[in-house]
Design a protein that fits this description.
The protein is of the alpha/beta class and about 375 residues long. The protein contains ten helices and twelve strands. About 35% of the residues lie in helices and about 15% in strands.
Length: about 375
């Protein structure tokens, strides 16, 4: 391998993507969305979240999400502060009645399982694990009242289809961590009861907020637990969040820029054709990335099963004898192509590429040419 510092490599301008942001969260924010937020001047930022100016944005966001996902009658859209990490605690308090089952196949699916296992008022969860780079399947178990799935494991680039486990107890809920999949992966909302996510992935906003699409069964569960006498901190009380969401507000003060960008992105998605258009756009990017890696002499898709390869978060292994991830990413970053580093805890010689709807498939194509250019000069 070359001893030349990778940061000295200069990629020709005609090879570079138009936008070099490929992060998996925070993800690329559309420049026009930022400009439109700035154009609100003094009328939005720095105003009260309990007044119509902000509440109208929350109302537009909630209605837009219901439209984008084609929610069946009776489903409710709830919002709150803290992101999906906080929602794991919320679900532990407010959605699991006695015992849950968790599919564990990466960093983030592990965390919800750990939260449920630590709760002293719940029975020990049923864990179904598989190695990183794969996903297990849920199986019906008597006594399980909540099945916890992950639509897209951000740490590994594994996606899975969603559905109710055949033979599950009547009334059992399906809860889905969809933080990096929501808005980029198609699914049937009738197959899930709590589909929750944060807006810093497909929705091109900032973190610190959670959204949840809740079925009538999930809402009934929330109300039943709230009236059972189980102690729940107010900031983690999903019943309080539902009540506030119905008023187009959050329980405590939200980040207004996050709300505005989130709502603007949903409007952009709907204007382009909705969830089907978004999923197809990400799929085009994924086809480009995986086809390039499969044909490469030094790169390969990390996820072995093609139908489990995420179309929103691509993970590509590099042959360490040819190229080191740190060198490749440093060279790309020096040329304005950022956030292609692997997930830190996975510990692989790997690139990770965000392919959310905001990312132009042509920019993914350009990225592959830039990687080839860098690796050729590193070897």
């Amino acid at each position: 391998m070359s001893t030349r510092p990778s940061t000295e490599i200069r990629i020709p301008a005609d090879l570079l993507p138009r936008d070099g942001r490929f992060g998996c969260g925070p993800s690329k924010v559309r420049p026009e969305a930022v400009e439109a937020l700035a154009a609100t001047g003094r009328s939005f930022l720095g105003t009260s979240h309990r007044q119509p100016t902000v509440k109208s944005v929350v109302g537009r966001l909630r209605a837009g999400l219901a439209d984008l996902f084609g929610l069946p009658d009776g489903y409710q859209v709830a919002l709150g502060n803290g992101g999906a990490t906080v929602f794991w605690d919320i679900a532990t308090f407010a959605l699991i009645e006695r015992r849950s089952q968790h599919l564990v196949f990466g960093e983030f699916s592990t965390k919800f399982a750990a939260a449920a296992a630590a709760a002293p008022f719940l029975d020990a969860p049923d864990l179904i694990e598989s190695p990183p780079g794969s996903h297990p399947d849920a199986r019906a178990v008597p006594g399980i009242d909540l099945y916890a799935l992950t639509h897209n494991e951000t740490s590994t680039g594994v996606m899975m289809s969603l559905g109710r486990p055949p033979g599950a107890d009547p009334g059992a809920l399906v809860a889905v961590d969809a933080t990096s999949g929501a808005g980029g992966l198609a699914f049937d909302p009738a197959e899930v009861d709590a589909y929750y996510f944060a807006p810093q992935k497909c929705f091109g906003s900032d973190g610190g907020l959670w959204a949840a699409l809740l079925s009538p069964g999930a809402v009934d569960r929330v109300r039943r637990i709230a009236s059972s006498g189980r102690w729940v901190p107010a900031s983690l009380d999903l019943a309080i969040a539902l009540d506030n969401s119905a008023l187009d507000q959050t329980y405590n003060t939200p980040a207004l820029a996050t709300l505005w960008l989130f709502a603007d992105q949903v409007g952009w998605m709907l204007g382009k054709g909705g969830l089907g258009w978004c999923a197809a756009r990400s799929s085009r990017s994924a086809e480009t990335l995986y086809s390039w890696a499969s044909a490469s002499g030094y790169a390969s898709p990390y996820v072995v099963k093609p139908d489990a390869r995420s179309t929103v978060v691509g993970t590509i292994d590099l042959d360490a004898s040819v190229a080191r991830e740190a060198d490749v990413c440093a060279a790309l970053r020096a040329n304005g192509i950022v956030d292609t580093e692997s997930y830190r805890k996975l510990g692989r010689n790997q690139l990770r590429v965000g392919m959310f709807p905001n990312v132009d498939p042509d920019d993914v194509q350009a990225l592959t040419h830039c990687i080839d250019y860098v690796v050729e000069r590193l070897t």
